[in-house]
Amino acid sequence: xxxxxRALMGACALGALATASMGETLTIxxxxxxxxxxxxxxxxxxxxxxxxxxxxxxxxxxxxxxxVTTDISTKGGAFDIMTIGMYETPIWGANGWLVPLDDLSEExxxxxxxxxxxxxxxxxxxxxxxxxxxxxxxxxxxxxxxxKAGLEMPDxxxxxxxxxxxxxxxxxxxxxxxxxxxxxxxxxxxxxxxTAMSNSFGARWFDMDWNAQFDTQPWKDTLEFFVGMxxxxxxxxxxxxxxxENLSLFQQGKCGMWIDATVAAxxxxxxxxxxxxxxxxxxxxxxxxLGKRSNWLWAWALAIPAGTQKEAAAKEFIEWATxxxxxxxxxxxxxxxxVPPGARTSLYENPNYMEVPFAKMxxxxxxxxxxxxxxxxxxxxVGVQFAAIPEFAGIATEVSQxxxxxxxxxxxxxEALAKAQDITNEAMEAAGYR
Amino acid sequence: MARSVTNxxxxxxxxxxxxVGLLIFFPILWTILTSFKTEGQAIADPPVxxxxxxxxxxxxxxxxxxxxxxxxxxxxxxAGGSTVLGVIIAIPAAWSMAFVPSKRTKDILLWMLSTKxxxxxxxxYPIYLLFIKLGLLDSRFGLVIVLMLxxxxxxxxxxxxxxxxxxxxxxxxxxxxxxxxxxxxxYVLTPMAVPGIASTLLLNVILAxxxxxxxxxxxxxxxxxxxxxxxxxxxxEGLFYAKLSAASVMAIAxxxxxxxxxxxxxxxxxxxxxxx
Lengths: 434, 276
Description:
The complex is a heterodimer of chains A (434) and B (276). Chain A is α/β, with parallel strands linked by helices and 434 residues long. Helix content of chain A is 44%, strand content 13%. Chain A is built from 18 helices and 10 strands. Chain A has helices at residues 2-21, 34-41, 43-50, 61-73, 88-94, 115-120, 143-148, 159-169, 190-200, 217-233, 243-251, 264-268, 311-321, 324-334, 351-354, 359-368, 392-407, 413-430, and strands at 25-31, 53-59, 81-84, 122-123, 126-127, 130-142, 177-180, 255-261, 280-284, 297-303. In chain A, strands 1, 2, 3, 6, 7, 8, 9 and 10 form an 8-stranded mixed beta sheet that branches. Chain A has a two-stranded antiparallel ribbon with strand order 4-5. In chain A, strand 4 and strand 5 (126-127) form a beta hairpin. Chain A is globular, with a radius of gyration of 24 Å. Chain B has a domain at 66-232: MetI-like (MetI-like fold), CATH 1.10.3720. Chain B contains 14 helices and no strands. Chain A binds chain B through residues 27, 29, 31-34, 37, 40, 55-63, 66-67, 70-71, 74-79, 188-189, 242-244, 247-249, 251-252, 254, 261, 263, 267, 273, and chain B through 39-40, 43-45, 65, 124-125, 128-129, 131-132, 137-138, 216-217, 220-221, 224, 228, 231-240.
């Protein structure tokens, strides 16, 4: 009998040991971009260190957003880790849909995450997603065309200077547009740009009682300035241009300036992709002297859906992918220009990285964006180019469609603003904010 | 004179048919061309047509980054399975509607078709919750069932149309010769409707192969078919057009080849009874 009991106990102990050391297979939903693809290529390093395997589900950004929202809101459990942004994180964290990342190891050094990023990825002071890379927006401009126009770009220009420079750089015969900006409908496309721009004009989406503010002068000024400048110096058909269209124009030498995501800097300075790689300069996004610049703040971050059976392994992955060691691993394999930017303070203290031409301006841009205080007048929401409430994506998509119709010449600024006011107020009333 | 006019009209018709055909095929042709360009050439303005340095690099990158064969296998199982299952269910249904119609047959047919008018996203959450409860999420079996149900109205309608062209007297004669219902459907009706069944099969394989809403929303890593493979190369932030085109060509190639080889049957089936 004793022998049997001992054998049974031994078998149980072996089983427990085997279970403890058994590697998990993590399913990770992610977006398709250069940094994420690079991470997929380096996953073997994680598997070797931990014994866990990784299955990637890579989707286009908007498809991914819908896919993971469906899964997390129904507790589907299809994914162990999700790539989400600054918009979703505080909302999902507040809903209890995400595992709090409040017990990451000491070696991970949570305090090293850039404060702006940590703030945007937290709810009530608790971090719910770890930033894989962060971005702001800044001006990328052609130094040769600026010189030819007899102008010098300040480090922190005003909108008036940008308009003047755009007009001076425009050469329609040579197919050069002074400025390229997003006009495409969609809250993450043209909607993000015009919202960030409106902050610098003193506009805001809502007052402190959640009333829409499109009937105010700052919004009228923003749209009229944008449309006026783009009609003077922008590319034809800018109403349908998003990030990729403008990237393509800039890389082919058809834009004097482009104000967009800081991650674009590595594309436009890559001689394999860009015809103007050796003549690109950088500056902070413009302001209007009101104390707010027109740059946004965004991060793609890794989060764990509540209820996953593989929480421990998922945390191990997040610690690996967003660690200082991972940055060093990418630098070793792909060079410093390709490390995921905008997430960790220590990266910007690294002399190797600071030699990258756009590193300092990226950091300065990130540091000037404050998601908790993004507007000149007080506003009740968190977020720079969005308001972190569940209703925002739907409302802003509709509003941006109205704005794009102005860019396409289908309606006036006043008509679009009146419609935006009605759309927003109706939606906010239906959602119970007003 | 009359003969010359006929030839002239024939030539015009032929040219017009080719022009329309090329117009319809142009997006696919452009995708194929782009897949052999570099990312820079893919976005060049003005666009480069045929004279560029053709490269297979995009195919190599896609092959290295993705497990194409796994996506392909999933597509074959899902498209093939849902179509075969749909036809097995639809043949008896179409038989009863064509040869033993009731007062409500037309209403039922219209009601079946009306289910196609509901936007898929309207039932996403109920279906998703059902899949979670039944453990079907990210399974090929689950997708076979869903796609079969989605395409069932079309299959029944197509087969009903073909069956109505077959004289009922032939089936009556078979019955008089002692054929059971099963024998009547299997050995008399089905062989006579082979062109129609073949075209129904082909059309539904194509529909299921290209279905992107459910196949993207109900799968993750295991059951994802070629639609998910394509979606993994699309990006609003970064230029992946050449690679996306290579992935698209790899995804549509099998169904394109199947379509080319079976176009005679497809046309024959689709025009079956059209001139009566």
